[in-house]
Amino acid sequence: MLRRYLIGTLVVGVLGLAPGLGGCGGGSTPPAESPAGATSEPKGTNPPDKATDEALAAQIAKDQGAEQGEKAAGDDNAPKTDEARKNELYKLVKEKRPAVLECVKAARKKNPKVGTDLTITFALNSDGTFKEPPSVVKDRSDITDPKVVACALDIVKAIKFPAHPKGMESTFVYPYKFEVVRAKQ
To answer: β-strands 117-124, 170-177: how paired?
Structure first.
């Protein structure tokens, strides 16, 4: 409310819209000029001076700057979009891809037909802890070796997920795709 008052006062003072100051003063006539060229003001009206206008302008700029600063400082805590949350989780799981690949490579040494796809899903509480432990989406995975599955799930379980910025639960699905590299013959 103070901001609106200050802005209104600044506009009125700068544009000369106050009654008795000339301009569009609500039907009032412009003040008569005195012999020295100064205007005579109605009694009880203080003419705006440049210092007052500048002070008001500075206060408004300061308020707007503080408001912008608050927004910038609060960006870390600002609610994130669902897409941003998904990307955040995706990045954390993707960082563990090399460890899951090692599980697959170890299994391929014993059985070269282990498979190439492993899709994992999990649900998180608002604080980032697991609501439901990670599990394999069977219809989207062709890696069924129990050791590979257990190894991959243990790696995902060890990830520390951040709390949801809006205090919501999250469900996430991550598809691992491992290509089979064939030796040249």
So the answer is: antiparallel
DSSP string, 77-96: GSPPPHHHHHHHHHHHHHTT
Could you say which of 3.30.2420, 1.10.260, 3.40.1440, 2.40.30 is the CATH number of the domain covering 82-177?
A: 3.30.2420
Residue 111's contacts (CB-CB under 8 Å, 6 or more residues apart) are 145
pLDDT by residue, tens only, the chain of 185 residues: 444 444 444 444 444 444 444 444 444 444 444 444 444 444 554 555 555 566 555 665 555 554 444 444 444 544 467 888 889 999 999 999 999 999 999 999 999 889 999 999 999 999 999 999 999 999 999 999 999 999 999 999 999 999 998 889 999 999 999 887 655 55
Q: Where along the chain do its domains lie?
A: 2-77, 82-177
